[in-house]
Amino acid sequence: MPRLSRRQFIAAVSALAASTGLSRELLGGRLALETAATDAPSTLQQTILQGGVVSGKYRRLVAGPGEPYLPRYDVLGRVASGDRSAARRSLLYLGHLSDLHVIDAQSPGRIEPMIVQDHSAWGSAFHPQDPLTVHVTAAMVKSMSDLRYSPVTGAPMGAAIVTGDSADMHSHRELRWYIDIMYGVRVMPTSGAGPDFEGVQAWAEAQWAYRPGDPSGGAFGDYGFPVLPDLLAQAIAKPIDPVGLPAPWYTVYGNHETLLLGTFDLDSQLRSLAVGGRKAFTLEATAGMALSGYSALASAAQRSLDTIAIQSGLRPGFRAVPADPRRELFTQREFMEQHFETAADPGPVGHGFTQHNLDSGETWWKADLSPFVRAFGLDTCNQVAGPDGAVPDNQFQWLKSELELAQRDNKLVIIFSHHNSVTLENRAQRPWQNETLHGAEEFVAMLLDYPVVVGWLNGHTHLNQILAHRGERGGFWEITTASCIDFPQQQQVVELVDNRDGTLSLFTTVVDHASDITPGSSGSYLDLASQSRELALNDWAETPVMRRGSPLDRNTELLLTAPFDLSLITDAALEAQHLAERARIIKHETKVHG
To answer: How does pLDDT run across 291-304, given as a tens digit for each residue?
Structure first.
């Protein structure tokens, strides 16, 4: 198929120079160069594995061999031609982030002591690496920037998606940290007003927590967690200058942006605690006060009296901390609004959400990631209780009608949601509600009716997992990525490729954040991210090694039948798409590298 002519190329360069603000000479010279598959660090070159015990049960990390792409034919139903690698062309290359869990570890709005009741059941309430989540997120964004060109085809990154659970505990401070890191805006990873870390990990009374200055006397000390006397001071001492994502990015709701700890409703008492000056450090204080709003016996008046008693210091189990109004707990609408409070690049405004979402309150969206690939971002979160989700009927019917149009218009479709098919069975409703909530079986069956659906990207379970869904009319691949809070702290890049033989491939590449295996002592955000990964490896309640997934859940080539004649996508149109994507990448590079 014909590519762009010289005249068309020059015209495209002129238009892209005007839209990016780059000079025609700079842009034209860079765009004229051929691109090749990147050798930027990923698990293709090296894996990070559990090493030997160094103290008690505490382990270090070690380097392992790289993992090649493994072909999977579950959906295609046959072995594909070995000649496809010579003919393939990239239709879309995107980054996939999920479950960043950016945490303000000093916030009084957290309920860390709940792990005393049951470390396994309440493990997400507290992690030994909680103060380092901002650093990990910045380090992961750097990896995405480093991998701005595909390791398979050299195609530029056209988009990125964040599939929920970005702000861990509904804090405005956490929400802004996450958004600013995506944009490459300097952040100061501390809250409150004082120069010292004010939280349970700095307090001798909280022996149940990992206290890096002196971990003795509790479960973490018994396990063998190290003495790191400077860790908390380093975590809040230096501003972080993130590089930002290299491509337009989109987002969807996670259960942690919907409910407290992704599970409970947010009551007025907790909202007051979050911005106040008293923080709980005992189970009794947390369960009796911070969670009293979930009791049917707690009236609004009683909750108000409890709040007054806590803030006045009359309730035991609380310590004074600097109050901070920036820790205010956001509403559902405010979550969307904050995604409009951003710079122009890399965009888009709203990150999937539009003015229609703000006006209507709808929390789902559609967007064309390229002229040939359409995305649908769903809100699968339960609004009442429980971490798992379902697909409300209004979204189910909306998506069904949109897929009819995509099928008619020959648009390849990727679905984005927080929950995956293993966790779409939560049908909790309030007594007066009567909306159908669709579970995984119905949802998958509906998607299988539309062959243009090629992929479903999600998160929630904090592990790497790839499932094949096959039906009478074809099938699609469901791709779940791990998280940035639990080991292995990995995300992924995904590339949709036309093999020019009637098949498509989705290449998945697992990505570690851009820090060394062995933590350094400089206090840089990369050193602190490295320390976080090691601590996460040893957070025994979170079954860390299991979350890596099997080799078939990591670096893969996922094949399926093309749903229509892909020669309808001309080489010239695809080249124009890649020029526009490369121009955005070049603008990102000039910002980061000068």
So the answer is: 544 444 444 444 44
